[in-house]
Specification:
Rossmann fold, alpha/beta, 7 helices, 6-stranded mixed sheet, 4-stranded antiparallel sheet
Length: 307
């Protein structure tokens, strides 16, 4: 019996090791910079199948050597940050249905959180791994949590989303913000929030929804947030267009390459963390002109011994 149990343990350990080896892993040490990169042609179509040598990464003007590369879909930790104020009322049902559809089509190992915000930021769901989620319970929780009343504290909501992502299980971190972009109730200020977003590892996608009767939103803010973090901003004209925006975000996440490198720049002893500017270039095998999108930079991680 003991020999049988020992053999079973060996088999299980081997199986776990094989599974781990099959997954692209990018460990966040004190130096490693991880970038999630999408490549499209002039027509907006994703270019897949590129190899590591198709990419060039420039960090503060200096070419970098990639230490890790994956063209496979990498599991992500995803925070839905959903406006729960009065302005959400015309789009409530479409947003709930679209978020559920997004979760259903996600990578089995994706981690899902949901936060809502009006005057207050509230936890609505998660964290849950998609493969273990009860979609009926998820739908019910969303319906109970999104009541569409009150004012809007989007800055507080963004900080709440970043807090959730700091405890996330995956290096690939995504925040999907559904709002009109207006703020009339936050305690946090805009500049603080924008700085923390740029310092984070999160890619932010925004879906700007405006109440056609009010039109008090701030789509410019939503565009700025998305652009600075390597995400994209969508502005559906009608409630029926909301599912399409979620589908485009899901497709963008699935078609990202993952690049990692240890920067050859930096290494100074300054106490203040320095921001690096990053540019990524790619070339298609057939010579097509391509468009590359990723974060525009990052802040140096805190080194041991720094104050």
């Amino acid at each position: 019996m003991r020999r049988a149990i020992s053999l079973l343990i060996v088999v299980l350990v081997a199986a776990v090791s094989l599974y781990a080896d099959a997954q692209p892993t990018f460990r966040a040490d004190s130096e490693l910079v991880v970038l999630h990169v999408t490549v499209r042609d002039r027509g907006g179509r994703y270019i897949t199948g590129l190899t590591q040598d198709a990419f060039t990464v420039i960090d503060d003007g200096k070419p970098q050597t990639l230490s890790m590369f994956s063209a496979d879909e990498v599991p992500a930790s995803v925070v839905f940050l959903i406006d729960n104020s009065n302005s959400m009322r015309p789009n409530r049902e479409r947003v709930i249905a679209s978020a559920v559809a997004f979760a259903q089509s996600s990578h089995p190992n994706d981690e899902i959180f949901v936060l809502t915000f009006n005057e207050e930021v509230r936890h609505a769901w998660g964290p849950s791994v998609v493969s273990g989620m009860d979609m009926a319970a998820f739908t019910s929780a969303m319906s109970r949590s999104i009541v569409a009343r009150g004012m809007t504290a989007i800055y507080d909501g963004l900080l709440g989303g970043l807090t959730r992502l700091r405890a996330a299980r995956h290096t690939r971190q995504v925040m999907i913000v559904v709002s009109d972009g207006d703020d009339n109730a936050s305690q946090a200020d805009r500049d603080t929030v924008l700085r923390q977003l740029r310092e984070s590892d999160a890619t932010v996608y925004t879906i700007g929804l405006q109440d056609p009767l009010v039109r008090d939103g701030n789509p410019k803010l939503l565009r700025r947030i998305a652009q600075s973090t390597g995400g994209e901003s969508y502005e559906p004209r009608h409630a029926d267009d909301v599912p399409d925006a979620f589908e485009k975000i899901a497709k963008d996440i699935r078609n990202a390459y993952t690049l990692a490198y240890t920067p050859s720049t930096g290494g100074d002893s300054a106490a203040e963390r320095r921001r690096h500017t990053v540019k990524v270039y790619a070339r298609a095998p057939d010579g097509r002109v391509v468009t590359v999108r990723t974060r525009d930079g990052y802040f140096e991680k805190q080194r041991e011994g720094r104050q």
